[in-house]
Amino acid sequence: MKQIQILSGRGGASGVGIHGFFTGGFILDAGHKRESIDCFAPSSGRNPGCTPALLANVEIPTRWRFALLLPKGYRYSGHREKRFFQEHTPVPKSEVKETLALLHHGVFPAVLEDSIDALRPALREMHRCGFKKRELYGQAAAVRRLFSKLCEIPECAVGMSSLGPLVYAVMREPPQEFLSHLAEIADKEDAVILDICAGRNRGYEVI
Question: If you write DSSP's letter for every residue of 160-207 in order, what string do you get?
Answer without folding.
Answer: E-TTSS-EEEEEES--HHHHHHHHHHHHHTT-EEEEEEE---S-----
